[in-house]
Each structure stands twice: as structure tokens, then as C-alpha cells.
Amino acid sequence: MMQGPCGLWFGKYSLMPIKRCHNVQGFRALAKRALPSPMFHYLDGGADNEWSLANNTSAFDRYELLPRALVDVRKIDTGTTLFGQPMAMPLLLSPTGGVQMFHHEKELAVARAAANAGLMASLSTVGTTSIEDFAAHTGGPKLFQLYVFKDPGLTNDLINRAKTAGFNVLCLTVDTAVGGNRERDLITGMSMPPKLTLASKLSIATHPKWLLGKIKGGKIRMENIANWVEANSDSAGGGAAAYIDARFEQSLTWDGARKIAQEWCGPFVIKGIMTPEDALRAQDIGACGVMISNHGGRQLDGAPAPIDMVAPIRDVVGNALDLVVDGGVRRGAHMVKALALGADACSIGRPYLYGLAAGGEAGIARVLSLFSEEFNRTMALMGCISLADVNKKCIQACKN
User: Fold this and answer.
1) N or C: which end of the chain has fewer CB within 10 A?
2) Euclidean distance between CA atoms 372 and 352, whole angstroms
């Protein structure tokens, strides 16, 4: 028996419930025990040497917070508006694909947990819940993330369905012209939907709770493009993942993005921006915000950490765009650092998926509660009673 990040462990089983998990790393440990190996590494891994994956989080350690003393912090206001939508704190739940692989409650749990926390939830084009079902499970702000395919009919259909379902924001992801080299997935034989190797079957056999959830949840399908996939994947060969990878629109340009923004005719965001020049282009075509993101270290290994690009991008766009730090955020203090550098909000993907894998909707709720507690505590210790108090005077680069 040994002490783990969530309490006492005996072998692979925790003796403590999720409410005794006190940080994201603890939920990662729970997720690793809850998921068969291929699913965990699909969630946890990055591209190539995974340098960007690790650097996304470690980069936050290069900044120090500068607290102000003797401030009345009995009342902290963390409320904000992002992409025109009110939220309880500056935290967005990023769009993630294949969510049903991690828990049978899938994106419906994400939608409900986010709404209960007063936060914006996101649904991916390659999500395992339909646009319509996701919208029906949340009364909170919601974002639909769009991948552009070679078939314009499919892209237009996705935009129109998101409009009809009442999504507030459309987010175009622009960093997936080709898939990243995710070597953990090559080692485990992971694909989407999973193609089980002998090792995969053995791992699943030792995770009966996950298997029962899989049976309860049914076939894992990318619901929003399932009809196109099922009609064409057999002729393409390689299954759904190969069909999708072969049909991403690699010729998409800024003119194409402008047309999508005009077609949507509402709050439009671009995810995958990493340079000041591209942020200016996003502003020029009508975006109201950008998500500074390297896709969680899953695409171009060697790309800088999003937190390091906030100040340079803010310097050139001024107040014209909402900026979201997407990648590496693991603490409420990370959120404060991002805001101090010029961001309007942060987004998380792996943290809430760890919570989902560990405990379904309750696990996500616990993760969001931890972020809220840490963010409020850090604000108080900084002497900041509102988000307006968090600025560049609150932060400095480490001197060592």
C-alpha cells in the first residue's frame, strides 16, 4: 500500500473516492487505472517526442506572480464574458474527439457539468454525440468546433445543424491539414473506432468496469459525420479514421475561412493560431477571437507553448480579439498567469477528460470545482478582487 495523489492505493485500485482527488494529476492517475491502455494513451499522448506536450505545462513555470498586499479580498468576482457569452469564470471546456472511448456518458456529461458550473462547453465535429443531443443537454453557452472536409455538402450541413440547434459560437480548427505523428497510438494499435489487438483485448479484460460501460453506451460512432463515413469508408479502406484523414480539406485558405465566418454569421473563432501575424489575419476575416493552441502537443511537435505566445499576440491585436490559452493548463494559478499576460480565458481538454474517465459527470464536476477553488484562492492571494485587477503588473518572467 502506498500514498497516491488521490489518497491510499492498493495495487491498481484506489481506496479514496473522486472527492478526495485534489489536483489534475490525481485525476490523471485515476484515469490511467480506469481506462484500458490504448484508450488512456490516446487521451494522454502527444506527437513525436512529445516535447510540445510537456512544454505546454512546464512553460507556466517560467513566470512568477507578483501579489499585492493589504487588499480587502472578502469578495472575489470571477465572472466574465467570452465570445459574447457570460461565464462564471474564464475557463472554457475545449472540443475533444472520441469522448465515448473514455466513459459511456460521453459528451452529454461534459455538456451538463459545464452548464452546472456556468461555463461554456464545446462539441467537436468528430465527437461521439450528435449536435442535436448535445444542445438538448445544456442550457449554458455552447461552441461547435468545425473541421472542413473536401465535401462542401458535409461542411455546410454541419454549420446549418449547429445554427438550428442554437450553438452560440462556431470554432474553426486550422492546425490539422495532416494528422500528427502520435507514436503512442502506433505502439498500442489505437484507431478510432478502436481496432482491438490481442494486447488491447487483454487490457480490456482487466478493466471490467470500462467494458460494462462500453456495452451500456453501445457502438462508438462519430455521430455528426456517421452517415458520410458509413457510406464511404468501406470503399476508401482503413475504416473511419482513414476516411476522415483522407478527406480533410488541405487546400483551405484564409479566403475559405472568411466564407465560413460569413456563412455562420455569428461569433466566429479560430483555433490553432500560434503567431501574431495569423492572429491579425483572423481579425481581418471577421473572427471575434482566437484559441492560441498547438492542439495539445498532438500535431506539430516543437511548436511553442501557447502561454508564451499570449503577450506577443496581444501586443499586435490590442483589444480587438478575445484570446484563449489552449494547452497545458493544469492549475487555477495557470489561469491567473494567462490573464496577467493578456489572455481573456483558458481552455482545458485532458483535465476534464481525466475526470470523465475517473467518474463520469461527477468526475468532470469535481475537476471544474478544483479549478474554481484554485482560481479564487490565487486571486485572493494576489490581492485581485476582479479580473480587471489581473494585468501585466501581476507577473514577471523568472530570472533564473
Assistant:
1) C
2) 13
From residue 80, alpha-carbon distances to 120, 214, 289, 386, 394 in Å are: 11, 38, 15, 9, 19
The percent of residues above 90 in pLDDT, for the chain, comes to 80
Which residue, among 43, 213, 222, has the nearest Cα to 128 in the 3D structure? 222
Measure the CA–CA gap between 378 and 188, rounded to whole angstroms: 40
Q: Cα 49 from chain centroid? A: 21
pTM (2 decimals)?
A: 0.93
pLDDT value at position 344?
98
Judge contact between 310 and 325, C-beta under 8 A.
yes
295 given a catalytic annotation: yes
* Residue 14 clears pLDDT 50, i.e. is over it: no
Mean of pLDDT values over 205-214: 92
Give all domains of the chain, ordered by start, each with its CATH number. 46-397 (3.20.20.70)
3-state secondary structure of 278: helix
Catalytic residue (choose from 41, 103, 104, 295): 295
Q: Do 391 and 340 touch, CB atoms closer than 8 A?
A: yes
Q: How far apart are the first and last CA of the chain?
A: 39
CB contact at 8 A, 129 and 222: no
H helices, E strands: number in the chain: 16, 15
**349-388 as b/e, with b when 16 or more CB fall inside 10 Å?**
bbbbbbbbbbbbbbbbbbbbebbbebbbebbbebbbbebe
Q: What is the pLDDT of residues 344-394, one digit of tens each?
A: 999 999 999 999 999 999 999 999 999 999 999 999 999 999 999 999 999
Quick one: which of 244, 214, 163, 183 has its CA closest to 51? 183
Tell me the average pLDDT across 236-247: 56
CA distance linking residue 216 with residue 347, whole number of Å? 30
Above 50 in pLDDT, residue 237?
A: no
Pairing verdict, β 322-326 and 345-348: parallel
Coil, strand or helix: which one is 8?
strand
